[in-house]
Each structure stands twice: as structure tokens, then as C-alpha cells.
Amino acid sequence: MYEYVGALHMHSTFSDGSGDVPDIAKAADEVGLDFIALTDHNTLRALKEGYEKWYGNTLLLVGCEINDKENKNHYLAFGIEDAFSTRLSAKEYVKMVKEKGGIGFLAHPHEKRTHMKEHPPYPWQEWEIEEFNGIEIWNHMSEWMENLTEENKYQAFMHPLKSIIAPPEETLKKWDEINQKRKVVAIGGVDAHAHKYNLLGFLEVEIFPYKVLFKSIRTHILINEEINIGDSPDKIQKAKEVIYSALAYGNSFVANDYHSDSKGFRFWGEADGKTYGLGDSIEAKDKIKLKVILPVEKAEIRLIFNGKKIDSVESNEASFVVEKKGAYRVEIYYNNKAWIYSNHIRII
């Protein structure tokens, strides 16, 4: 399969980011990303002004981050042509994104910090809604702010990548819970703004430069066809459709590539002489093999079934035999650090 590596969820000067769109894309290209997805707040100005295109070997896609009138229920929407009014309810704009052929993901759904008045939490509250495609299970900026304290702030400011530990347990639990009823896809986001802060009254520091964040939480997609780079509208549109289809389907995984390059990770199922990939469902008949390979010599491979760890292996590969119906995924811990979170393979 062809593997492409992207960074999702970032903001430019078209909303509350500090970077111009071409400069953001240039940084992504220098880091070696295959695609990035811009999500300025409640605007698709970058799309309207023609910024959705290739920048070197990186394709910049343009979505937007939508919220309600209380600035809650943030929603990452892709594949739409127009932004929506913030006077709409979450139920309304989630439904509208789907009706217009787009895809959407709940952003940083379980924020709850109280120690940053200038940056209040923006949790997802409308869990009865079912039209969304997936959940942002890991958000770099959100985790950093949630865990920031007076004691660790200087270390966190100076080493923004080291301070990221793992996705929120509450988010993982909710994601697994919903997947027992229907497919809900996981993505990871950097939530890059490149904000500038005055640390000591005279020293201005840029926190999380785009280029730095592009080395952390990434979403890898696995597809059956090669994406062709080209400036023609047809090639851009084709690449866009392929990437969005992969994100919506769930043949993808989330990784903190700061710990190690996760390219080459695979998780698949084998049953009745057929192979099944991430996002697939397998009809339960006889016993099913779930297999894993890693691009490192050794890491802890955890098999998660309906939200609970049922097995683990210390190796660079694993084979699990399962037969119960439900949602299976794997978590990989490298050097005791959370590294890779696969999407589910569901047995039905």
C-alpha cells in the first residue's frame, strides 16, 4: 500500500494564527510532510483565494474549524465550499457538512482546563449527534495547555515536543465506546497557531513554530493508489478526494513521530484467505488473525478490544487470534512512551 503522512488542524493569519499560508506550507514541505490541512476558524478564505495546491512535495488542503455561538463544539470540516454561520447549533452544522458532501471530526472534545483565563476550554458537548465521521483523539496544543502548570511552564515553553505524553483517556474511552455501535474514525491534530508570548517581560518567544509542531502528532493514511503531484486542477482534486476518502474511511493511524518515524507501521486482519485493513469490518466466522509489524526493533504492542487491553507483546511484530465480535485496535508504546494509535478493525 502507499503511505502518506500529514499534519491536520492548523491556523493562519486568516484567523488566529501568526503564519501566512505559503510560509506554513513551505515549513511542511521542508519537514517532509505529504499533506497538511488548514482549518482556520469559521472561514474558507484560503480556499477562495486559491491557496489549496501543491507546495513542493506537500499538498495544502483547506478546511475550517466551526463552532457554535458559545464558542463550544469545535468541528473540523473538510471538503466543503462555504463556511457556516456561528449562529447555527452543532447539530445543524454537523448535518450540513454531511449534506454538502464534506467530512467532519470533533476537535479536542474533552478540554476542561480552568487555569488559563485567556485560553478557556472548548469541549464537545453534543454527544447525541451521530453524523460526524470521527474524533480528533490527540491534539498537541490542547494537551500542552491542559497540562501546563506554574511549576512546569518554563520547561514546557522551552521543550514543547517533550511535554506531549498521550491522548486523553476520556477521549479514547469515548471513541472506543462509540465504535462498538458504529465506525468512528480517529485523527490527530497539531492545532498550530505559532503564537508569540512575552516570557520575562522583555523576551518574546514563538511557541510551537509550525515547523516544530509538524514533527509531532501526525495522521498517516494507507491507500491503494499513488498520489500524483501536479498543479493541474484535476490532479489537485484527485489527490484531495483520495486523502479525504482515506480519512473518512479510517484506513489511517495517528502517531507522535517525535519519538520515532512511524512510517511502515501496519495493522491488518486475515480471515477466509482475505486481508483486511484499517477501517475494515470482518464478518465473524472462524477465528481471525490480527497482525502487526513495526518499523523499529522493539516496542510494546497492545491489543485493545472494545476499549480494554486484552494482550500485549514486546517485539517488532505480533499475531493475535481473536473471535469475539467488537472493535479491535492497537496502541504502540516505544521506549515506554505513547507512539502509535491505529484505527479499528471491527468484527461484526
What does this structure look like?
- The chain has 348 residues and is α+β, with helices and mostly antiparallel strands.
- The protein folds into two domains: 255 residues, TIM Barrel, CATH 3.20.20; 82 residues, Sandwich (Immunoglobulin-like).
- Helix content is 20%, strand content 34%.
- The strands form three sheets. It has a 16-stranded mixed sheet that branches. The protein has a four-stranded antiparallel sheet with strand order 14-13-16-19, with no helix packed on it. It has a two-stranded antiparallel ribbon with strand order 9-10.
- The two termini are 25 Å apart.
Overview in brief:
The chain has a 16-stranded mixed β-sheet that branches. Strands 14-13-16-19 form a 4-stranded antiparallel β-sheet, with no helix packed on it. A two-stranded antiparallel sheet has the order 9-10. It contains 8 helices and 22 strands. It is globular and about 60 Å long.
